[in-house]
């Protein structure tokens, strides 16, 4: 009986630690996403609004932007699929680089399918 109790404690303590770390990580991630969206929508940081074309996966765009060092969030307040790309050094200074990332680095979907040849990157303010 003593061995069984010791074994249960030996398993439950690490399990509790893993659950606590996972909870903190998920909570931090959600708070970080909310902060980025508030900065972009609220105008705290300049941003570029990109309307995701029908048929393109927004996750592929977000992943490509993240790999290039950009913070971006989906705009949940819109009826369309818009992505807000934060540009701390200014939207006009970053526009060409973000356009290049969207045109050449972001695939159609997460499977890597290519975009159509006539694909054109346009931001909402253009």
Describe this structure as you would to a colleague.
Helix content is 52%, strand content 11%. It is built from three helices and three strands, in the order αβαββα. The chain has a three-stranded antiparallel beta sheet with strand order 1-3-2, with helices on both faces. The mean pLDDT is 81. Keywords: Membrane, Transmembrane, Transmembrane helix. The chain crosses the membrane at residues 6-26.
Please render the helix and strand layout as text.
Elements: H1 2-42, E1 47-51, H2 58-67, E2 72-75, E3 82-86, H3 91-105
Antiparallel strand pairs: 1-3, 2-3
For the secondary structure, the number of strands is: 3
What is the spatial order of strands in the main beta sheet?
1-3-2
Major pleated sheet: 3 strands, antiparallel
Count of DSSP-assigned helices: 3
* Structural class estimated from helices and strands: mainly alpha
The Cα radius of gyration reads 21 Å
Task: Give a brief outline of the structure.
The chain is mostly helical. It has helices spanning 2-42, 58-67, 91-105, and strands spanning 47-51, 72-75, 82-86.
Characteristic terms for this protein:
single chain; 126 residues; mainly alpha; three-stranded antiparallel beta sheet; 3 helices; 11% strand; membrane; transmembrane; transmembrane helix
